[in-house]
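Dear colleagues,

As part of the handover before I leave the project, I'm documenting each prediction I ran so the next person doesn't have to rerun anything. This entry is a single chain, and its sequence is reproduced below.
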Amino acid sequence: MLNIIISGAPGCGKGTQSELIVEKYKLNHLSTGELLRKEIESKTQLGNEIDSYISKGNLVPDDMIISILIKAIDRQSMETKGIILDGFPRTVNQAEALEEVLKMRNKETTVFIDLEVENRELISRLLKRGETSGRSDDNLETIKKRLQIYEIKTAPVKDYYKNINKFTVVNGFGSVEEIFSKISSEIDLRISAK
């Protein structure tokens, strides 16, 4: 069973690449951003609380994210070939909780893929996305804060996955196809090593 984590700063192309990975490897896609946005759209108390964090560029607390994600993982069919997580884990606490959840279900992470893109390019991509998406968090001030928080919070997560030999980095600059080719090579390498 393949369980892939795709990580990278906001605007690196995780969502686009996740869709391609899902199609090629027949995985279920779990995007924490999407799960959180659905919760916000539902206008529940939890959704409103989540929105109060996201709209200011802050990370949603670990316990909220973990709870939502565990429910999503457990809803996945036993028939699936695996999952791809997009935007999770973002902290070491989340990484440890995820690995524990997978272990309790006799599963493990196959690979943590880090899509690296320079900040200047990320800001440009996010500002363009903000013009078309209408997302409240795609403005310059919030983008800079999100990138800063991302660097501070996720550097230890990368180290965590390096320490358990599940980490790989992929240059996220280039055409969608070029980046996907590099990602596929890394995934295939992990599959063949099993």
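Strands lie at 2-7, 28-31, 82-86, 111-116, 167-171. The longest strand covers residues 2-7.

All the best with the project,
I.
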